[in-house]
Amino acid sequence: MGNASVLAAPSDAPERAAPGLPQPYLLFLGDTRESGYAKTAFGLRDWAPERCVGEYALTEADVTTGLTRMTPIEARSAGARSLLIGVANPGGTIPESWRAALLDALEAGLDIVSGMHMRLTDIPGLAHVAERLGRRLIDVRVPPADIPVASGRKRSGKRLLTVGTDCALGKKYTALALWRAFAARGVDSDFRATGQTGIMIAGGGIPMDAVVSDFEAGAAELLSPDAAPDHWDVIEGQGALTHPSFAAVSLGLLHGSQPDVFVVCHEPGRTEMIGTASYALTSIEEIVDLTMKLGSRTNPAIRCGGFSFNTAALSDAEATDLMARESERLGLPVADPIRGGPAFDALVASCLA
Amino acid sequence: MGNASVLAAPSDAPERAAPGLPQPYLLFLGDTRESGYAKTAFGLRDWAPERCVGEYALTEADVTTGLTRMTPIEARSAGARSLLIGVANPGGTIPESWRAALLDALEAGLDIVSGMHMRLTDIPGLAHVAERLGRRLIDVRVPPADIPVASGRKRSGKRLLTVGTDCALGKKYTALALWRAFAARGVDSDFRATGQTGIMIAGGGIPMDAVVSDFEAGAAELLSPDAAPDHWDVIEGQGALTHPSFAAVSLGLLHGSQPDVFVVCHEPGRTEMIGTASYALTSIEEIVDLTMKLGSRTNPAIRCGGFSFNTAALSDAEATDLMARESERLGLPVADPIRGGPAFDALVASCLA
């Protein structure tokens, strides 16, 4: 969220994210020396390793995903179809020093996939070379064209949406973990991505925060189409219904997703909403109440499946104790997907119940 | 709402709606023979007569606003600065048969203002002539560039927002009537427009349904800036918090507007929400409850000022009786701004209390 450049998005991009990205990827790390900036590449390695043939970095970089390091030509021979920019640096700009590497990738026969704020088409000369070679430059922050207005028609199949008490506390991670757990239990399911990193992992999706508001719910309807009765779409949530900046995104996504089940994501200890002028975090119960009330409009059978806590700041004992107490208090499973264990199994079972 | 063309809006328009439109207008009626299609012109005549120097129509037209009919050259001499397309026909297209008249307007020294779905720049040759003459082509459905993400910071001044149990039942009309009534009582106030007709009447505003969802609340913050403590912004509402297609627009507008007072607009007898697959209309009480709950996030002092009923389908006696009963039941004034009278005076007093 907060990407001003999406205002200029819909008409000037040579290629739109949907329906699918060219995979597998060669993960590009640029000249990154700060592992925190390479979280997109790490996310791909962790959640879609079968879609990554290796990594490529400039000699200045000292960050690695642990995947085989290769040149664009080697990656193309190994089956890669695109170079994916695996870095999310502050400002989202693509430095001049990466340009030669991006041109090499195009020459080697790879498309380029980016989730940066800066557009690939804004890099001098890149679009010209891509056109000459018949290669694609794909900015995944660009929503698909011709999104319809939502109809509210009930769709077949099952849907789960992760929601939150704030932004940036684990809605994507929770959705991915639940999707993987569903698959491990033999449940037919898809992860439905709504932000740039999720879209790269899934190979498709819609950047919901970049959609024009009149079409927000319509985009969510498009994202999780009719499916078999026992199929689950696990949908990555965005924002929070009580976030003073981004609630429009959250409500359009909730209405259009028509979730049967939602999981509330929360970070114990966080007291203020990110990016706001001192807005206190909403309570978990209030998010449950609002999600039930607003979500029942398009799916009267909506229910809360449980809670996903981001307990990275706590010790094992503290986290286990807190989650047990909160589960008792709230009457539903509370788990940290990263810690897993019986609590997470209980959350998965509750969602599928 | 429902304008697919706004998806392509932000980057390709030669001119954006904000901050102000070139006024006064010459109202253009095209070849319209159906008065319902000329409601934009009638709205301008009724709500901003001081901004209209006259009307202009093709010989085929038999609709009139009652204003002096004049040519573009005559209008320019009378002070007009733009030709305003006062027609909203089905599909929002600008027929080929109007092209010569639009070119005449440019040649006469007028800019052109349009709220149609079709862009003025999509009319063959128009942009070229406008550029040669230094004239502007203004599509008011294009939001301003560089809208910030909402901060949630409390702004000074007072704000009123009209909300509704559905789309298209009088939120613009109610806001205009309240604004006019405030002014008649000596209250310093501005009408803040959020849709194309309102923007033409006000001479500025933001088409909220065309704003990218991440910036929806930010656009609403931009629309009603800090003001004197006793100044009122009367803000035109959009959609409904329970409309399965457009609630994202409504919630972003509510959060960003930070209203002190809201008025619920309703049409007695309407049973289903417009444009949906059989969604029952939400009750008035539920809209009050949701607006209080969600609106208190950015303005804890929010309150309901009363109710505006669209009773066009009822007789005088039926309307008076119904509104009296509903006012008794709901505990706040109920009025039809078009009927006015003591009930409307009570609504105005309740809003300003």
Structural overview:
Two copies of one chain form a homodimer. With 353 residues, chain A is of the alpha/beta class. The first copy, chain A, has a six-stranded parallel β-sheet, sandwiched between helices. In chain A, 33% of the residues lie in helices and 14% in strands. Chain A folds into two domains: 22-139, Rossmann fold (3-Layer(aba) Sandwich), CATH 3.40.50.720; 158-352, Rossmann fold (3-Layer(aba) Sandwich), CATH 3.40.50.300. Chain A is built from twelve helices and eleven strands. Chain A is globular. The two termini of chain A are 33 Å apart. Chains A and B meet through helix 1, helix 8, helix 9 and helix 10 of A and helix 1, helix 8, helix 9 and helix 10 of B.
